[in-house]
Amino acid sequence: MAIHYQNSEKEALATAAECGHAELFRADLEQVSEIQRMFREVEKKLGALYGLVNNAARFRRRNALEITEADWDFIHRVNLKATFFCCQQGALLMKKSGEGRIVNIASLGGIRPWAEYAHYCSSKAGAIMLTRSLAKAFAPEIAVNAVAPGVILSSGEEPRVQDMIAATPAGRQGTVEEVADAVVYFLGATNFVTGQVLAVDGGLAQR
Asked: Do residues 55 and 27 both lie within one domain?
């Protein structure tokens, strides 16, 4: 098992210990050369790669009339650009062993528009379309799917979060375990399940 981190080494070490002392790999995902180096190190240390979960993301509220180029790039460099190149490098490694599974963590914001998160929503909508495109591009050896969480353990102090929870048919926010269950499903599914987006949102996307 391998875990990526950039700056949160202490937290990464703790997570690695919980996962049976998984290997740690540090990389700045904003740099494609760093992504390429990281996957070379994964191959060198682990020899092969079967499952890849792209979870790195940025989230920032901005009035659409005030979003700058820097704001846009800050979100998209990680949420979309890094996701693509991690998928690419992961798939190249998976093809050496003949098969693999990729799961991209999208967002309810990639399915439903949020007025103050235009740059974030577009990045996550892009991640969903990227998932569907790569499911075709990497078939049949590699399945590519996405999980789109709704309100997951967010701060209850934000009125907007409380409004979203109130609008959720399940009547509550979700848990990281419920998101993890969806990821594990895709990692273990056959290659006949590919190009799919599973919303783990208590039914909120249907409202």
From this structure: no
pLDDT digits (tens, 9 = 90+) for 93-136: 999 999 999 999 999 999 999 999 999 999 999 999 999 999 99
- Residues 154-175: tens digit of each pLDDT: 655 566 788 899 999 999 999 9
Length of the chain: 207
- Please state whether the predicted TM-score (pTM) of the whole model is above 0.90: yes
**67 & 118 share domain:** yes
Surface-to-core class of residue 16, CB atoms within 10 Å of its CB (0-12 exposed, 13-18 middle, 19+ buried): middle
Q: Report the CATH number at residue 87.
A: 3.40.50.720
For residues 28 and 71, membership in a common domain is answered with no
Beta bridge partners of 198: 147
Phi then psi dihedrals of residue 157, to 5 deg: -80, -20
Q: Catalytic positions, please?
A: 120
User: Which residue range forms the structural domain that includes residue 193?
Assistant: 50-206
Handedness of CA 147, 201, 149, 123 (dihedral sign): positive
Provide the token pair at 28.
């700045």
